[in-house]
Amino acid sequence: MVNKAALDALKTYYGYDSFRSGQGKLIEAILAGQDVLGIMPTGAGKSICYQIPALLLDGVTIVVSPLISLMKDQVDALNSAGIEATFINSSLSLKETNERMRHVAAGHYKLLYVAPERLESEYFRELVRKLEVPLVAVDEAHCVSQWGHDFRPSYMTIATLLRDIEPRPVMAAFTATATDVVKDDIVNRLRLVKPARVTTGYARDNLALSVVKNADKRDYVERFIRERPDQAGIIYASTRREVESVHAFVRSLGISVGKYHAGLPEEEREATQEAFQRDDLQLIVATNAFGMGIDKSNVRYVIHNNMPKNLEAYYQEAGRAGRDGDPGECVLLFSPQDVVTQKFFIDRSEAGDERKTNDYRLLNEMVQYVHTGECLQLTIVRYFGEENGERCATCSNCADTRETKDVTEEAKFIFACVSEMKQRFGVTLTAKVLRGANDAKIKQFGFDRLRSYGRLQAVPEKRLTGLIHGLVADGYLTMSDSQYPVVQLTERVLGVMRGESSVFQKVEPEVAPSSRSGGRRSGGSSASIAVSNPALFDELRKLRKRIADEERLPPFVIFHDATLREMCEAMPRTEREMKSVKGVGDGKYAKYGRAFLELIQDYS
């Protein structure tokens, strides 16, 4: 049970009466002096797990965070709640840095956010040696693992910070996604001592996941965003060139849109991100460089124009939708060229052979996700090691109303072909053999003389390759972890070949812009949110935007949309009633509450 002081701090500063799943256990462990590892999905409230202890412990808590924009947003949110916090990073001048370090040394702050690169500074280390540091919190801790999807060498310096702090502080590591291998790597590399491990589950019940194959991506994107004109969204693309192309296309539709990738000037990237955070811009096209730094709570949809390199990266990026707990949509537009692009990135990287083999394995698992007929949410939580998940009923597979087809006979021909080819070749060549293609490589290996040659010539190649990938996703076949993965048989094939079991799949239809795709209309409205008083809600949003612009803050730092909606339902008339609204703590009320209360009173 969480102690009263922690609950009082939660109510006073954050406006909530109780902790979410996992938060209480992590906070109790930290306050008891135990290291922790928290694996909590995006939007689950990881930051509260170290911010509450920071308020209750003597001294200043150091928070290691990877991106400047993320630090600024969190510090702004803390300050708006009446919590003294600051950051030190490369965006500050030397004079500003020195001034903030003096204030830190004087005990003016409870939380200090720094980038991992800052820990390499001897000047900063000297400051730390003079401080009372009860807690070091590591955000986006998966970055320390070489087996994670976003390894950053600078994170390796964090553990050495412990040598400069006496007595040793509690270490707290947090991330949204991590496989068991990555979790163990985090513990070892950050030198966590018998940490309390809390994993609250990877399922994001508010997100509707969709995979769309064989679609005209431009038509799909146009239809999707036109039907959501007032919603904030992100379109991810795999390369800078693709970002520029999609951005130009969306602009040609007369839609206001920003772009973000590492090839743009820093000033332009900062301006675009700031406009998006402040709701001056509702849509942005970006590479994965626009990822962890996005703390915007009201993103309603994320479209992946290209398949990411692995499931961890995908779920991190897709998780930018619905951070506030309200419905969000996550659409992955897939084409076979996406696999070629990701293989190119892996092949030209400077990683060692072991890392590349691991990256190819992760890419294969991403491809299997695209082709699975299983619940997409369930597929993801199982990937991260959860076995007791339930079907979500909202993803494109669960909502797919197409009739399941018995493909046992086609599957038998595929299994036989893979066997005759000695399990040494990939999906494309296997499909060509089955279709009886007049291909030089087929003749070179003598595959035109196989019994399987041409046995499925009536099946279109695109559908046949999709069928093979589906058999991989369903566990009948497997793919080797290499640059050119080969198809191999699993034990599940035996039952099918003996006639003891059958194989069923939903055959992918051709997708038109106005047709169904994966069981869900491309222009669905699953992210629509009911508001009891839309007119008042709109007025509250306008007031929030005016205050945010005056204070140069993102609107969600003032109040989240969910808080404004509860105001519309509760219609508070007194200070006490306003403070009973979730998200309105003492600090927020002192700064902003009176203005919102007066607006509601006038509206009534």
Automatic annotation (TrEMBL):
**What EC number(s) has UniProt assigned to this enzyme?**
5.6.2.4
Q: Where is the HRDC domain?
A: 530-604
Q: Which organism is it from?
A: Cohnella suwonensis
Among the Pfam families in the record, one is DEAD
Q: Where is the Helicase ATP-binding domain?
A: 27-196
Organism superkingdom: Bacteria
Task: Write out the transmembrane intervals.
Answer: none
Chain intervals for the UniProt region annotation (Disordered): 507-527
Which metal ions or organic cofactors does this protein require, according to UniProt?
A: Mg(2+); Zn(2+)
Catalyses which reaction(s)? Couples ATP hydrolysis with the unwinding of duplex DNA by translocating in the 3'-5' direction
Q: What residue range is the signal peptide?
A: none
One Gene Ontology MF term: helicase activity
Q: What is this protein called?
A: DNA helicase RecQ
Q: Which residues form the Helicase C-terminal domain?
A: 220-367
